[in-house]
Amino acid sequence: MTYKRPVGTQDIVPGVVEEWQYVESIFRAMADDYGYGEIRTPIFEDTDLFLRSVGQETDIVRKEMYTFEDRGGRSLTLRAEGTAPAVRAYLENNLWNQDRERVVKLYYVAPIFRYDRPQAGRYRQHHQLGLEVLGSPRPEVDAEIITFAWNFFQRLGLQGVQVLLNSVGCPLCTPAYVQKLTAVMQESLGDLCADCQTRIQTNPLRVLDCKLCQDYVARAPRLADELCGECDDHLVAVQATLNLLAVPCTLDHTIVRGLDYYTKTAFEFRVEGIGAQASIGGGGRYDGLVEQCGGKPTPGVGIGIGLERVLLARRHAGIEFGADQRDGTFVVALGDGAWNEALKLCYELRAAGIRSDVDYRRRSLKAQLRLADSERYVSAAILGDDEIARGVVSLKNMVDGEQTEVSRSELIVRLS
Ligand SMILES: [Zn+2]
Ligand SMILES: [Zn+2]
């Protein structure tokens, strides 16, 4: 009997995990610099939370959620997206009433579960780096989140990232637009793809970002032309702030995002060469969501960045992670007499915060050095009877092969 991991998942093993850690560490450090605090929510939530926030007619709720009944008969769903759990936790933990004027800035690094068709960079368990800001209606906050992501992608060496910006309006202006859109689309209903023939009834805005129906979308009225004064001002102000901060962005009226809760700003980051959609992140404003989840009316805006997509984009850009990175000191024991001292030295190095290991198979000098090299150590500390008697180690540089004698008492200072 052999077991395989479930379809659409992956194991992230040593040798691969280092780049994940690196990307996450940049994200965490930036979140700290921008004043965001980390939030960790459960991996599953009441199914109802996603139904009510994401929307019954979205792809996520209709066909992608991992929903199950627990032994107590409750319907639970694995985290299907990051915003609704963050908003639920924001309300449940009273983050909102500690200070009336307080803007709450949260970040998360979390797995997301969706029963999607597996394809390049898309997984049924994928990981998102997310930001949420609650409590401010200001367009500068939308711009902050977009600028954060832009700077993050720059730091990761991604070139040619596109920032696509749109507004999906608000309850004052979107319904009238949806009526117009539906009327125009009804005329060519027979020509739309099968999904859009349903969407036009259930979730008409989604027709706008359908890849198959772009010919018809081009003829449709644009939401950006139908916005109310407030939504229009907001969009203009987001653009102006991005301009001020030197973040290039393009208006794209097909950016609607798939979720019901978005209002006003919707945006997406794309990069060439990683598949048809090429999206590496996206988000928007959700001014009605907190109220929908049972709180007082509270504006919010957020982004989710796909970690696997970012890693894929780095690979496509030819960025090799850690190809020449070495770290630590491997301890080589010459003969069984030196073994105990070698073992003690290895633990001393580890206690001093220096990566270290020994060859438990106690093989030849050559085999031990080969292991030190393949495990990418910077140096090898060689200990034989002679070195032990004189209180020294032979320190071999694994890059250029140069060997020097260092007194045992100075070794850690020298390596730190
Ligand atoms: Zn509006
Ligand atoms: Zn379509």
Structural description of this entry:
By secondary structure, the protein is of the alpha+beta class. It folds into 2 domains: 17-173 and 227-316, BirA Bifunctional Protein, domain 2; 329-415, Rossmann fold, CATH 3.40.50. The chain is 36% helix and 20% strand. The chain contains 15 helices and 16 strands. Strands 1-5-6-11-10-9-7-8 form an 8-stranded mixed sheet, with helices on both faces. The mean pLDDT is 92.
Q: How much helical structure, as a percent, in the residues? A: 25-40%
Q: Please tally the β strands and state the result.
A: 16
Poorly predicted spans: none
Number of helices: 15
Brief account:
By secondary structure, this protein is α+β, with helices and mostly antiparallel strands.
Could you list some keywords that capture this structure?
416 residues; alpha+beta; BirA Bifunctional Protein, domain 2; Rossmann fold; 8-stranded mixed β-sheet; 5-stranded mixed β-sheet; 15 helices; 16 strands; elongated; binds zinc ion
Summarize the topology:
Layout: H1 17-33, E1 37-38, E2 44-46, H2 47-54, H3 59-64, E3 67-69, E4 75-78, H4 83-92, E5 104-113, E6 125-134, H5 139-155, E7 162-167, H6 174-187, H7 194-202, H8 214-217, H9 229-244, E8 250-251, E9 263-270, E10 279-285, H10 289-292, E11 300-306, H11 307-316, E12 329-333, H12 339-351, E13 356-357, H13 365-374, E14 379-383, H14 385-390, E15 392-397, E16 403-407, H15 411-415
Parallel strand pairs: 1-5, 7-8, 12-13, 12-14
Antiparallel strand pairs: 2-4, 3-4, 5-6, 6-11, 7-9, 9-10, 10-11, 14-15, 15-16
The chain binds zinc ion (2 copies).
